[in-house]
């Protein structure tokens, strides 16, 4: 039985700090643990409403506490502790499943642009865990390095795009991007990339014969405060260490389906 091998090297940490992303080597979970996650996702997808896009499975752990076995697992939290410090909160998760043939494009964006009124300071590390292989041919994520601390540092200007062919309806304006510098984050199943919330990223449509699903796991240091305006809409979970600001925390074993149902249909990243 294969054991997990993924951990951050000094080079990974330096790349994350300087370029806003890194691609650590190795698998995140043991083969058995990942297979259980994969099967759990398949069950969720089978139950997903046929009239809703599968790219839009935002914060599924709110209504499915079983997912916290993986979201709060030491194999995951170990990857963000070198970046965020010892006191860590789980901020959000999101299954972004692009079906084969008609998986929609994810426009260029910064996660921070959608959370500007929610978090202070804006310090979020996102683990992008590949449920399926995520390749150039089926619409893997691309990042534009160093955009987290250059230019508008996570708060670019946006313009409208067609929602019929895009996962959401706005995109960073061309003048605020350097598309020619974009780097593909190709991943095999059970491997991951990590990116800063302010890093510009996006992905092409999936017109291939291969599904592309990833699960984003988003963590903040416990010194990051969530606005009172969002306390009932965006649950926080203790991932490691102390709740240093004494913020309201959710119970990882409790079902918060009422919050999950309220958030259904929100924008994918």
This entry's quaternary arrangement is single chain
Structural class by sheet pairing and helices: alpha+beta
Rough outline: globular
Q: Based on DSSP secondary structure assignment, what is the total number of beta strands? A: 15
Helix fraction, binned, reads 10-25%
Q: In the CATH hierarchy, what is the superfamily?
A: q2cbj1_9rhob like domain
Domain count? 1
Q: Please summarize the sheet with the most strands.
A: 7 strands, antiparallel
CATH topology description: Jelly Rolls
What CATH architecture label applies?
Sandwich
Structure description:
- The model is unreliable at 265-269 (pLDDT under 50).
- The protein is 20% helix and 24% strand.
- It has helices spanning 10-19, 31-47, 68-71, 74-84, 111-114, 257-263; strands at 21-22, 57-58, 88-98, 106-109, 119-120, 125-130, 141-144, 158-160, 170-172, 183-184, 192-196, 200-203, 212-221, 225-226, 237-240.
- It contains 6 helices and 15 strands.
- The chain is of the alpha+beta class and 269 residues long.
